[in-house]
Amino acid sequence: MGRGETTMYPSNDLTSINNGSTPRGEDHTKHSKRKQTILTLLDVLNELRDGELADASINQQQQRSFEDDRDVPTVDEHLQKVGADAFNKFQRRILNLDRELRNFANAARQLGSSVGILSSSFHLRERLTQILFLFRENAADLFPRKIVREGREQLVNPNYRHLKRNKRRRAPPHVVNPTVMDTLEAEDLPQQLEFFARDVTTFLECLNEFPEFTDESLNASILSLKGDLKYWASCLKAYEGQFKYPAVQRYVHDLSTEMGEHLDSITSSLSMFIEIGVPTIRFAQKHAAANLLNLSTVATFFSAVTATTMQFSFDQTGNPLADSVNGFWFTSLVFSIGAAVNSLLGLTWKQAMYRSPGHRVPWWVLIWIKRSPLVFLVLSVACFSMGLVLFAYSSHQHQITSTVTTVFSACSCFGLAAVSTWFASERWIFNRHKGKKWLADALSDTKVKLYSIPGIAWFFTQPKAAVNKLVYWGHRQSQDASDFFSDIGKKTMVIIRSVKSNLSDASDSQRSDTGSPVPQCFSPEPLSPATARTGDALLPISEVDSITQSPSVDGLDEKTVASDSGSTAGPSSQPSLAARRRWANAVKSVSVMLRSTSAATGPFNGPSSPRRQRTMSSDGTRITTNGKPLVTLPGMIKLSRVAALVPKLKSLETTQDLAAHQALVRHLQFSPNGKFLATSSWDRTSVIFKVGDPFTCHRVLAHPQGFVGQVAWSPSGTTLLTKLGRSVKLWTDDGVCKRTIERRTAIQSIAWLPAGEAFLSVEGENVTKLDLNGNVVDVYHFEKMIIHDVAVTQDCQRMLCVGSLIASAEGLQPSKSRAEKQIIAYNLERKDIENRVPVLHDVRDITLARNDLVALVSYENKLDFVKVLKDNVNKETRETARLSLRHTYMPKVQVDFAGPSYFGGKNDELILCAGKAGDIHIWDRESGALLHHIRAQTLGGDLTCIAWNHAHDSFMFATGSHDGAVRIWTAPDAPSIDEPYPSRGPTNPTNTPARTPSPFDVEYRTDSPATQLGGDSQDDHNQSSLQVDRADSSGSRRTVVFS
């Protein structure tokens, strides 16, 4: 039975009970007891019903208060699906990392000293389980129709049913599936993130305990995740007690995307480590184990040799030589046995799974395990060699045998000592210079230092110089000898050649006397395949079509050129032909240049000036939005209101096209009284248009100092502020510059106070309050934040701000993720922050509705509708504001919004925004339904800003574009067919609409009254005229003179 259901119980009417006949005494008593019992049961049921209804009413009131005071979960199906997809992707990333950690644990069990990495990987998996549970709970609160909660009992103890069965066979800690703590709540998220950072750090330290392989990419990924986790935990500590508010929950949900990128990076790096790093470490450990095993084998064999040799000397005692032999050989046997045992001990220790890592073991233990086997074996060999030399003399061997044994043993011991010293020196140099120098480099440095000593330098250099002189003298003598013998050979060869030539001349003279004929032949000169030679000119073969060759009398070919008339010309006429052809080509080139020049300049106009090209529809007619409307209306919208809004929005079209600027339109705004439209551009001008049909250019405000980034009308509509990089200018509605206020820091944005007596200048961490004379009235400081935009309530008590965090409260900064942004409710009287809402997306603008209850925040690809709630803390203190996220307006496709978004309609019931590609979206404020969408193809151009005219009787807004044009959108009454509409370019020259008003038609205003009245003071009041040719929409041209 639900709480909201009302169950009908029977009343306490006993007339329905059939008494029948009059009972006897006992029956009457039993019947009375039955009636009493039934009455009691009915009373209990009625009490239960009343209590259940009371509970239901209380719950309904609490639910209503929840909806009034806090944000409600997202009801839009598209947003539910997008949010659920984001969480599911995050869940897959965590599960993939968990799988890779399991695979890594299985692969690492083959390695020595793997207990640390196994324990750290299990703790990391356990932490991932806690994080996934918290993010699932958070997503289930935001998207209840798409995300299902998991039972806490199953997560806390998944083997609950089989607990008794598996009690005796308990698995090791590193193979147990991680579980969720039973006391885990949403408020524990900052602490869990800190634990997560600690666990990944421990995992990295255990991973780096394997010196055989180091993965820099995995180290960088883990360190980046560690930095971001600490930054997120530090930022989330500021929202303690607010983790059930959907605004904070949305921020936590957005963090899943940032964290998921880190998890993907670690997963891929860990997979590569399993494929490459683990086999490398395993191979290195096997190689070290094989070396120890070989060392143990050699030591065992050498101990056997030593023991066998001792059989010849152990019984020889009594003289010093025999005793020395036994002493050295017994010592060698001891060292060889110690080397064999220590090698086996080191092999067992290296292959042990539960051994401590190297930096956790005392130094003397490491030295004994790693160095003692080799040192003992070297000492054993040295002692055996010395004992062998003494045994040769003690056993009275032949002198040659004793001498040879002594010499070779000495060489062997010297080589063993030298190599051992080299190894020890390499280790010492490595530890001293941290691997930056080799032993050879250290020896070279030592050699240079020795040479710097005078005596030592002479001792090394003079013998070397003498040897070099001796070598040079020998080389010179050998070179002279080789030259002598080579000269003799050359002279001999000359004599032989002369003799041979004399003999050949004699034979030739004999043949000439016999008179044998020698045949001769002539062949024509071959032609080049690329060119044909004609006289002194070279012509391509493709052009020489009439060149023919006729054999001459003497057998050679003579070239002739055939003319068009059929006559031939000899070589003397070929240069004139080439000259004629070059002349013809020159004439053709000149004619082509003349035609191109005439086409560019026109027959009557002079050289054409460049015109600004604007995007427009191909036919040049009015832009309308005919097509199937994409309107999504939930059932909560009233049909009457929708029926009134949708037709008006569908009828919106471009009624005027203003050529406002020569460059990008940065910002525009209608005056509160609706009489003027102010625009700002990157062409260093700001234009004031007078609203009407048509719009007329009222004043052009010049800003030689830089680009104009923002315009702001005063609440009365008589004063205009224009923002530059580091200054603000005050203008009247007639275009007179009253004052220029210079600031030392860059200005982000400006905003008027409701009374119009002062304005706010956003300057980095400070928001400065300035009066109209430029005096600083007050400064509001925000610690470790960069403020982007502000909006002030009508009672001047609160200021809504949007900004980015420079660092967290603990001074931490993100390593890879985006910095946190905040929406802040700031009390101007108490100068403190009443409430803040974290966001992750880039937020730049905030717009406050006229009733001060709702605000609109513009992101890069979505809008947030924020409600300003006021809670009474107690009777002594004033009410405090709290921000509550009500709606998120997100297009169906990815759209980059241009400039700030605005409220529209008479009662701010519309949400209006423009996309950079040219799309215009209009939503219903309360329901979040998309009422109208003007597509970029229909609009025919990109947009940079948008503004709504609240004072106009019907719907009117303006848009700015990159080409400097400003379009006015209205819903006009049905015009006549003959009425002309302004257009960007005519399609029919005979029927040209009226030209768009241009700012060049009116008086040009500068930034000071003195300049407007007396000319430019910088040019010593000398008037200079500049003649500019411009073309209007009809193609006619006119001249404008500026003075």
UniProtKB/TrEMBL annotation:
Transmembrane regions listed in the UniProt entry: 292-314, 326-347, 374-394
WD repeat coordinates: 658-691
Keywords for the protein's UniProt record, in alphabetical order: Membrane, Repeat, Transmembrane, Transmembrane helix, WD repeat
Polar residues biased stretches: 8-22, 505-517, 562-576, 1023-1043
Residue ranges, annotated region (Disordered): 1-34, 505-533, 548-581, 598-627, 973-1043
InterPro entries named in the record: WD40/YVTN_repeat-like_dom_sf, WD40_repeat_dom_sf, WD40_rpt, WD_repeat-ST_regulator
Any Pfam family hit: WD40
PROSITE patterns (alphabetical): WD_REPEATS_2
Highest rank taxon of the organism: Eukaryota
Statement: the UniProt record of this protein carries the keyword Membrane: yes
Bias kind Low complexity: ranges: 986-999
Annotated protein name in UniProt: WD40 repeat-like protein
Annotated source species: Somion occarium
